[in-house]
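Worked example 2:
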Amino acid sequence: MSQKSRKLPGPVADEDLNNTNSVLELLATRRSALAKDMVEPGPSDEQLEKLIELAVRVPDHGKFKPWRFIVFAGEGRARAGDVLAQRWQALNPNHSAEMIEQQRATFLRAPVVVAVVSSTEESKKIPIWEQEMSVGAVCQNMLIGATAMGFGCQWISGWAAFDKVVLEKFGLETHEKIAGFIYLGTAGSPLSDRPRPDHKSLMTRF
């Protein structure tokens, strides 16, 4: 990981990605690692607790705490994979055994996976939309925090995040949703940047 200073903003060379030299450098160079390429080590229990502590330092209008976390680590990843495999087979009885096993291995791609749960509630003062944006901010804080700790990370949803049977087996209430699965580990392949939007074309002045 390169830590040299560079002029901000501007295109990011691959060797400059995830530069933790400063907060601005990190924001300007952050790049997700691919979950399918992640390897050990992942965050320890202590590091994971610290990461979640950082994640919840987000705007939270009304102090609703409209988020919670489900950690899949160790054997829990395999148990979650069994849930996905069984549900996939029920939905797709004609699919091959190989496809079923791919679903079973979903959470084994990274040492740790954290489901960020959107747990909003009806309020006359705080719209659901505002609460959901707070949940999204939690996910982004996790990416920034994990990267600053030196880990590779990726925010993924996938079909399981929207399947009612899977969500029930994962312990979600009927009003809750999965905002995303945050995969955490060590990048197992070199990172390369992708095209970024032209921010100037997205700006207007009123």
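The first helix runs from residue 23 to 29. The beta strands are 67-73, 112-118, 152-156, 177-185.
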